[in-house]
Amino acid sequence: MMTDIPHDVLLMAPVMANLLERLEGDFRLHRLYEQDDPHAYLAEHGGAITALVTRGDVGVATPVLEQLPQLGLIAVFGVGTDGIDLDYARRHGIAVTITSGALTEDVADMALGLLLATARQLCHYDRFVRAGRWLQEAPGLTTRVSGKRLGIFGMGNIGRAIAQRAAGFDMRIQYASRRRHSSLPYAYYPDLPALARESDFLIVAVAGGKETAGLVDKAVFDALPNHALVINIARGSVVNQPDLIAALQSGAIAGAGLDVYADEPQVPAALLAMEQVVLQPHVGSGTHETRQKMSDIVFANVSAFFNREPLPHAIE
Ligand code: 8YV
């Protein structure tokens, strides 16, 4: 049961209305993103805040955490913890929860959707039909997806769900990741450029953060065949964005399908201008069904924390 005195919860960024209403209903909610001077706001209210809600794509800066001496929970709306200083959280006994299990399928669907859209030029031909160009010219040919060699970088839950889907397209599935998963029937490459050399398509599905920052760089684009397509549904930080743009401009690779970027919501003009690129605004998990589940999970974790119950989705 909740106590009568409302608990103070800090919200780092807008979340869906349904979650916002539930948090506001049960807690004293502090919306940091609405404050003109967040530092001064936290100097006044930070001492009372015991739980924080943020989004996977937003995280929380360590100086903010330093202004929250009583913080016991960071509840992430998403699965990415790359925007959170986990060492700081561990040292200060702050639990971290994520919306594990809720978004795997949607993000994998988006990866396949982007692959199909890029290879078969779905967005390009949508523009072609709408502009009335079909009346004047015959559409050109595109690239087959079925039966091709798919390299997946990262074999966590999302990587596996992508592989399952790709198997339905009779693709030859191979992957690079920190370690081999011996239970999986896919070829393992310890080295990313080696995987790239043998792949028609490369899907980036690895977690973001310091360990993976910039790993998909010029060496990888040079290793990929010129007809290769690169799909990123993970984090913009994993791909060296200037190297990606250079590879697309020089023809080192043939196209890209992107849901994530280095500096969201900024998308470089060079990418906007390219017809061989399909762009999405970080909406891999953005379906009604999944966002509702994510909202329920965040709320369940915050409630469990204040009820002193075990957290259903805590990481380690
Ligand atoms: C975001 C994500 O949380 O799970 C993640 O880490 O990046 C996304 O699901 C989502 O965009 C919420 O805004």
Automatic annotation (TrEMBL):
Residue span, D-isomer specific 2-hydroxyacid dehydrogenase NAD-binding domain: 112-284
MF (Gene Ontology): glyoxylate reductase (NADPH) activity; hydroxypyruvate reductase [NAD(P)H] activity; NAD binding
D-isomer specific 2-hydroxyacid dehydrogenase catalytic domain boundaries: 11-315
Protein's organism: Serratia ficaria
Superkingdom, taxonomy of origin: Bacteria
Protein name: Glyoxylate/hydroxypyruvate reductase B
Enzyme class: oxidoreductase
Keyword Ribonucleoprotein listed: no
EC numbers on record: 1.1.1.79
Family, per entry: Belongs to the D-isomer specific 2-hydroxyacid dehydrogenase family.
A cellular component annotation (GO) from this entry: cytosol
Pfam families: 2-Hacid_dh (PF00389), 2-Hacid_dh_C (PF02826)
Assigned keywords, A-Z: NAD, NADP, Oxidoreductase, Pyruvate
